[in-house]
């Protein structure tokens, strides 16, 4: 394989637009093909990202059959992920799928056991893992800055339900089920959307602790899921890994609970101010010494993700290099989310 990985995108929504913009100034990757069932999106992407008309498709499968394309980025609504991961595997493509990769554990088990995955890359789009602040957090833990890791708390929550009216009163909005996040049939809800991030971060930190097998987890639901209509809009759980490490996680569409992660060690703590941040990072270290670490992100995290995954494929890796999401983590994450959603 030559020194440039050629990408195709199926599904041209907002996240795909951010992703496509991030190919600028990347030497080992190029976006060459797009597919959408919406003509105006195809025209917009074609013009803005200089895609050849021959590589603009109104059927996803036509793109998958393009032999020039090395890897498919699946940016479709959650409920379509399984179908198009499977078809991409069958047509011998490397795959990056937007999170969450699967909306149930049964699909994850079936697809992750496909024999073609022994030869092809499958990654899950947790771009936050490629931010320099995550690299720094891992470095601090490995250098024993806060001692043995005991527990963590992480949250992802923003008020998407109510809006402020005159005189400080809040009024509930009617959920717009045309939006994916509020549509159960499209895999919407706070648990699959925001909760998938918190589960991914928990697995990442748990995997750093000696002697822990992240497959051995127990899940305790802290509070009954807050539902509006048939959509989960807020919930918290505790994850216990090997009875050695606990992670308390919260996902919300209802409250501005923030995006903070606190990692507790025997000798201190690490606080990430905005865990899912795409801009500058900030970590507060309270360990052997107290200090505020600020990290400028010179490339956006989608660019870092594209660059790293392209390098993985160029080097014949079928697993994401650390700290990307590996296939076993995709499976475990799907199992946790399934239990959380249905618990």
What does this structure look like?
There is one protein chain. The protein is of the alpha/beta class and 343 residues long. It has two domains: 5-125, NAD(P)-binding Rossmann-like Domain (Rossmann fold, 3-Layer(aba) Sandwich); 129-342, Dihydrodipicolinate Reductase, domain 2, CATH 3.30.360. The chain has nine helices and 17 strands. Helix 5 (105-112) runs antiparallel to helix 9 (327-342) and helix 7 crosses helix 9 (327-342). It is globular, with a radius of gyration of 20 Å. The model is unreliable at 166-170 (pLDDT under 50).
Summarize the structure.
With 343 residues, the chain is of the alpha/beta class. The protein has 9 helices and 17 strands. The chain has 2 domains: 121 residues, Rossmann fold, CATH 3.40.50.720; 214 residues, Dihydrodipicolinate Reductase, domain 2, CATH 3.30.360.10.
Q: CATH-wise, what's the superfamily of the largest domain? A: Dihydrodipicolinate Reductase, domain 2
Q: Using the alpha-carbon principal axes, give the shape.
A: globular
Q: What sequence of helices (H) and strands (E) makes up the elements?
A: EHEHEHEHEHEHEEEHEEEEEEEEHH
- What is the fold named in CATH at topology level of the largest domain? Dihydrodipicolinate Reductase, domain 2
The fraction of residues assigned to DSSP E strands is: 25-35%
Just name the CATH architecture of the largest domain: 2-Layer Sandwich
Distance between the termini: 46 Å
DSSP strand count: 17
Q: Work out the oligomeric state of the chains in this entry.
A: single chain
Q: Helix tally? A: 9
Low-confidence stretches: 166-170
Described by strand count, sense and barrel closure, the largest sheet is: 9 strands, mixed
Integer-rounded radius of gyration: 20 Å
Under CATH at level 1, the class of the largest domain stands as Alpha Beta
The average pLDDT score comes to 93
State the helical fraction.
25-40%
Q: Provide the structure class.
A: alpha/beta
What is the domain total for the residues? 2
